[in-house]
Amino acid sequence: MPALSTGTGPDTGLYELLSVLPSQLQAHVESADDRSFLHTMFGERSLHSLVKIHEKLQHYEETCPAPVLDSAGALAQGLSEELQAKPLSAEVRELLKLLSKPHVKSLLSVHDTVAQKSYEPELPPLPDDIDDDEDSVKIIRLVKNKEPLGATIKRDERTGAIVIARIMRGGAADRSGLIHVGDELKEVNGIPVGDKKPEDIIRILAQSQGAITFKVVPGIQDEGLAKEPKVYLRALFDYNPEEDKAIPCREAGLAFRRGDVLQVVCQDDATWWQAKHEGDVNPRAGLIPSKHFQERRLALRRPMTNTQPQKISRKPSGFRRSFRLSRRDKKTNKSMYECKKSEQYDTADVPTYEEVAPYRKGHGAKHRLVILVGPTGVGLNEMKRKLLISDPQHFGVTIPHTSRTKRSQESDGVEYHFISKHLFETDIHNNKFIEHGEYKGNYYGTSVDSVRSVLAKNKVCLLDVQPHTLKHLRTAEFKPYVVFVKPPSIERLRETRKNAKIISGKDDKGSSKPFMEEDFQEMINAAQLMENQYGHLFEKVIVNDDLAAAFSELKLALRKVETETHWVPISWTHS
């Protein structure tokens, strides 16, 4: 495009230039729409106002404004003293009152600071008692506010010196850039620390207010450390540093709850990592136990807990009601549908952290598997029914397999997939079933392929399983979203379930009977056991106090799974 001739000199203002620009561009713009756009844009009043402001500020800057004097505060003080020696008229009294106001004094003080360009804090003079043969030292002065200084100390086992053990990322010490890991601490506020224990020094720091002066001998610094990549972990346990006797500094600890996502910023220490809550605007990191350290001490506590195998009975699903019996029925009948599991595997599975990454369902990707977990009678079946009725084209359920003979009114692939006992046993051997069991000599089970079949139809597969199967389903293929449905208080159960019925397995069609008091207590106990043992695998917890409200909460959660970003195990995003 040819150079534009504005017809203006080099001193012409920007505002004047913009006013003639549309006419100069006229010859180079072919489209009428483009010409209209240019006239509208350059004729915008807000743009003209901004340009005028810009020119005024530029002119003001070019005049090099300078303060008339840099001691307005002293002048005001002198004026006040001189006026008080004169007769106090009403005007003088008013002026003296005005000059004595703290806001006016502060304003004049700020004016003098800017006028004198005295922005840097006043540092204390260097000590006179530094020995000539003393190692090169740094005198550091930090102003302590309400937040911790963000550094921990330890005694070097080899030299006996007190050294900086770690610098908390984003803390006051880190932001100052003056203190580093490995620096030897000589004095705090003039108090020698060589003969003191680390906890005594921490006590001195805790009692200090305002500026704190450190004398340190710089350690050897490793400048070659590369910037660590961001690591995000989902916490699988609750942690309160105030209750942790092993933490080197409780004030530096980071508290979190199970399910919180943490950004780990430093893993230099094998025992204590530095982390902060994901999305937290506070730059200061805190200490958390490392994965290895937490696993080790949790494993040591396990022998103290009851690790005996405990069976969790479940109400039969309405869609698969011949699979399960209530505990009362087990007094006379064996469970129709009992999953095989390894209690030893569950006990050894110590939950600490899980590395996660953000995930959002892409266009054309299969839906995530939705798993409902809960105790017998809590309402899983009712919630699943309501989901299917609400949108049968969007939600689907698996069709179970059985080895029993097909009845005259049944169709293969509708109520069940009917297969031979030999083929069922072969599929069990080949791990093709998520759950399986035997009742009255016949096998029943839910196959992995039946889940794939629902997902292949671009439907959300709704699956309710016993909780110990969850870790076998947590794969990149299924990306399950696990919802735990728990009962309300026993008082609310008595109130809301007094006219309800519980399905029992007198036969494989199932029959129903009213809830008994023991059903309520069993439901609450089973829910507590599930949450204690498998709660770290639950992404959503819904209390089924009112079925309509619980269903609405579930429907909203499932909509968010499809439309919003969630944190999932990092291995699911690499497939």
Automatic annotation (TrEMBL):
GO cellular component, one term: adherens junction
Occurrences of domain PDZ (ranges): 139-220
Domain Guanylate kinase-like: 367-559
Pfam families: Guanylate_kin, L27, PDZ, SH3_2
InterPro entries per record: GK/Ca_channel_bsu, Guanylate_kin-like_dom, Guanylate_kinase_CS, L27_C, L27_dom, L27_dom_sf, MAGUK, P-loop_NTPase
Keywords tagged on the record: Cell junction, Membrane, Repeat, SH3 domain
Positions of the SH3 domain: 228-298
Localization annotation: Cell junction, Adherens junction; Membrane
Superkingdom per UniProt: Eukaryota
Domain L27 per the UniProt entry, residue ranges: 10-63, 65-122
SUPFAM superfamilies listed in its UniProt record: L27 domain (SSF101288), P-loop containing nucleoside triphosphate hydrolases (SSF52540), PDZ domain-like (SSF50156), SH3-domain (SSF50044)
Family: Belongs to the MAGUK family.
Protein name (database record): Membrane protein, palmitoylated 7b (MAGUK p55 subfamily member 7)
